[in-house]
Design goal:
This protein is an alpha/beta fold and 263 residues long. It contains 12 helices and 8 strands. Helices cover 44% and strands 14% of the residues. The protein binds 2-phosphoglycolic acid (PGA).
């Protein structure tokens, strides 16, 4: 029973470009990525370039089966918020949005409370949130992973109604990204990531939204995933794909990762 439900979740791979690629560079990278990615069926593929690249990349992805995501959004729909980008603006171009990435948490003051506001705004505008959680190295060494990640899920998703309805659970994506594994070339083990996903993330989601919804949510692993190690991660049935940073800027690597995720 459990296995069957696991397999019903469509694999998902998103590339988080972070603060890389000017518009011209983004056009170049997308034109190199599309031919290889287009042919790969059975996996939801998403590119998340910087805000300033979104319009150009949206035009290049039109008519392809590759989705577009932003790396952040503000929760207000419009107003005097200099420098911010509203969910309405994001939703005009994108279907997905990364929320609560650890770099936003550590450098830009993102908290579980602001994650929560952003997630609600994303849902309100029909966006699919990719909600990032994960413990720091200190927390990992202090064996606080379960405590930290379950709090991030609980507080980040507090007061979200309707996730159980209309299969909306299937529209939420959670990315488990241990901070110590991001950009370090030292990924978690597939078993380690799978156990946090099963015992902490899905069990907390089940408490909050019920087992059925918890089973529908795609949960990704992120942190030093590359073309070589991706298949080992995806062999774990608990893992539904990856949020990829550095390797998403390399055509061969990212294509290989997407290929490994296709079931
Ligand atoms: P990485 O980054 O793949 O470069 O480790 C992952 C992420 O930050 O989402």
């Amino acid at each position: 029973m459990y296995r069957i439900e696991t397999r019903m979740r469509k694999p998902f791979v998103a590339g988080n470009w972070k603060m890389y690629k000017t518009v011209a560079e983004a056009r170049q990278l997308v034109s190199e990525l599309v031919p290889g990615l287009q042919g790969i069926a059975g996996v939801e593929k998403v590119l998340c370039p910087p805000f300033i690249d979104l319009l150009a990349v949206a035009a290049l992805l039109e008519g392809t089966d590759i989705g577009l995501g932003a790396q952040n959004l503000f929760w207000e729909t419009s107003g005097a918020y200099t420098g911010e980008v509203s969910p309405k603006m994001v939703a005009e171009l994108c279907r997905y949005v990364i929320i609560g990435h650890s770099e936003r948490r550590s450098y830009f003051g993102e908290t579980d409370e602001t994650v929560n506001r952003r997630v609600k705004a994303a849902f309100a505008h029909g966006l699919v949130p990719i909600v990032c959680v994960g413990e720091t190295l200190d927390e990992y060494e202090a064996e606080k992973t379960a405590e930290v990640v379950s709090r991030q899920i609980r507080d980040g998703l507090a007061g979200i109604d309707g996730l159980q309805e209309a299969g909306a659970g299937a529209l939420m994506v959670v990315a488990y990204e241990p901070v110590w594994a991001i950009g370090t070339g030292r990924p978690s083990t597939p078993e380690g990531a799978a156990s946090v996903i099963r015992d902490v993330i899905r069990s907390t989601l089940a408490e909050l939204f019920g087992v059925e919804t918890a089973q529908a949510v795609r949960v990704l692993y992120g942190g030093s995933v590359n073309g070589k190690n991706a298949a080992e991660f995806f062999a774990e049935p608990e893992l539904d794909g990856a949020l990829v940073g550095g390797a998403s800027l390399k055509v061969a690597d990212f294509t290989q990762i997407v290929q490994s995720a296709a079931r």
